[in-house]
Amino acid sequence: MSEPRHGYKFIFFDCDNTITLSEYLTMDTTAELVNEILEEYGKSERYTKETLIAKYLGYSFRKMLPEICQEHGIQMSKGGLLYYGNVEEEHVITTFRARGQPCAGALEVIQALYNRGEYTLAVVSSSALGRIKAQIETIGAAKYFEEYCIFSAQNSMSAPKSKPDPSIYIHAMEKLGAKPHECLAIEDSVSGCQAAIRANIPTIGYVGAYKTEGPKEVMKETLKRAGCCVVMREWKDWDDTFRLMLDLDCP
């Protein structure tokens, strides 16, 4: 692993499609629930996993659902939003525990960083806390993250604010006593990258969750435009990517 020269002390990992291959696996479940809601309210449009990902990649369900309701003219109470948020979380956790996998190479990088003992490792996600914990437990990564280093935009703050709002990153830094230049974030989505960058945290984009070259290249350019310092294609490229981050003046 590369030697630290720029003072990084805290490494913040997004969860979904950054360290866990969850977005595509669980979005089928989410699409089914969204379609059930649309049917219940007499709406004809239906979503697939692909259409949800194209429009809401990086969104938590609790951020996604109000936007879908607004788009389709659905008046849903706060109680209804909370109910469906809990239903989706339970379904997603069940799905991931049964079939979830880590992003290729992510676990090895996390383990190596943990073993060095030079960095505080944290998960900073828009997902609900129960979902985050279930996912990192399933892939065998929970032992590398202290309880106080798991941050959920849904549950860790008094008022939930999902990415791209930077609040969850600011909250994580406050709780850990970290300054932005001491932190490094790894994110796979535009909303996630924007959240970290708006918190003034140097950010690596990650596109390894995409299975084919075409989408990887498209997202690589998209994350660059979003402000990522570097975009990493696969976790096996971590050493070179981290070394490059040490040499860059970013942000």
UniProtKB/TrEMBL annotation:
The protein's matches in SUPFAM superfamilies, at most eight in alphabetical order, are given as: HAD-like
Q: What keywords appear on the UniProt entry?
A: Carbohydrate metabolism, Magnesium, Metal-binding
Q: Which InterPro entries match?
A: Beta-PGM-like, HAD-like_sf, HAD-SF_hydro_IA, HAD_sf, PGP-like_dom2
Q: Which domain of life is it from?
A: Eukaryota
GO MF terms here are: metal ion binding; phosphatase activity
One Pfam family here: Hydrolase
Q: Which cofactor does it need?
A: Mg(2+)
> By its UniProt entry, which PANTHER family does this protein fall under?
6-PHOSPHOGLUCONATE PHOSPHATASE, HEXITOL PHOSPHATASE B
Name-wise, this protein is: Uncharacterized protein
